Amino acid sequence: MQKKLVEVCYTPGGYDYYKGNFEIVVVIDVLRATSAICSAIHNGVKSLIPVSTIEEAKAYQDKGYLVGAERQGQIVSGFDFGNSPYSYMKPEIKGKDIVLSTTNGTRAINIAKDAETVVIGALSNLDYLINWLKDQDKNVLCLCSGWKDKFNLEDSICGGAIAEGLLKTGKFISNEDASVAAKYLYLAAKDNYFGFLKSSSHRRRLKKLNLNEDIKFCLTPNQMEVIPILKGDRLVKLDT
Amino acid sequence: MQKKLVEVCYTPGGYDYYKGNFEIVVVIDVLRATSAICSAIHNGVKSLIPVSTIEEAKAYQDKGYLVGAERQGQIVSGFDFGNSPYSYMKPEIKGKDIVLSTTNGTRAINIAKDAETVVIGALSNLDYLINWLKDQDKNVLCLCSGWKDKFNLEDSICGGAIAEGLLKTGKFISNEDASVAAKYLYLAAKDNYFGFLKSSSHRRRLKKLNLNEDIKFCLTPNQMEVIPILKGDRLVKLDT
């Protein structure tokens, strides 16, 4: 059997280079959008509608949807919640369709939406996702959301974890240096994500906003067996 | 004394984000342009004129200059040499002005040329360069040439080495995740650059072209005490 590719793209801005060569795109925004999305779908939210702009989010709100909107790490004034995973675990949102717009993560999802399959990755669903990906026999691109089109540490480490998980099955190869580096960063970080990411710029940003509980949650791997998948314009639970 | 910044930018395409905030830009293209430039200046070449395009290189050749031109790792047909460091150590080129155009490195130099100071970094002049930088009291950006605007491992590791060298003086800080990651990659690679970079895509590319001797040379740190600096449109030896 021919080996499949697994690569890590550090930023949405870098996606053009990879576009078209990967049947599966895994969108990653560990702090906090994709961690929140996994939590929501795991906790029974029916679907999440990712939108790029606040204007789109507002339009949905006007139609009666619950809307999460975050910019610069904070809830956008006038919306129901931001992107704290804890906001998406409340019993009252079970079974609902919720709209979500975040600084980086929802933009990455929308950039990737022409791919054959778009799924959501985070540390919280890491092993479950890797286990599913390794049986698909498809080329896999881990698309990091980054921070305003710059490299970020936590997304790259999560991408490196997925790459390493697939490479060690022997069924995948990586050709790009970015993927090799992401794998090394994961191997350096894996025994202590929290400690390793002390120096991450976004962790410092969120800590200033008193979001340490969120950070701890997002950096704890393998808390849930769930894969959110994009169907049309909505993220729903993949039946595995 | 206020601490100065040291950051690592992975690609010329990412330079816009950093532009204007750093008095000193260190251009890095370990395999092989900046290693060759250090060798040339160390071995008595009077100046190197970096040009971005083959057309510019040809125009200089027509005026009688010796010209090095490399694309895709190979000497461009019709020119005197490519970017093997060994080509620039020949006694007959001492005292000469030489023109150089390479796939990535000379492009990065030209992108950075509006900075107050542009110097050339490689593993071959690593400690000597760090030692000079730490006494300048200026913000330092390590600009990696990458490979066709993608991240590459060897340049990022060299940038990480410079960042780490400056950070440990206590006189510098890094704010960006890209710099933190580059530093980690350097720490993982530093005891065995050659082994660590086995998986680098450009090393594989050059190995196919039978350039293993060049690779070994470029990955051997601290071979020379030289800093090439851009003065006008020419790289010359910095008097330290």
UniProtKB/TrEMBL annotation, chains A, B:
Keywords for this protein: Hydrolase, Magnesium
Reaction(s) catalysed by this chain's protein: (2R)-O-phospho-3-sulfolactate + H2O = (2R)-3-sulfolactate + phosphate
Enzyme class per UniProt: hydrolase
Tagged with keyword rRNA-binding: no
Family matches, as HAMAP family: ComB
Family: Belongs to the ComB family.
Name of the protein: Probable 2-phosphosulfolactate phosphatase
Lineage of origin: Bacteria, Pseudomonadati, Bacteroidota, Flavobacteriia, Flavobacteriales
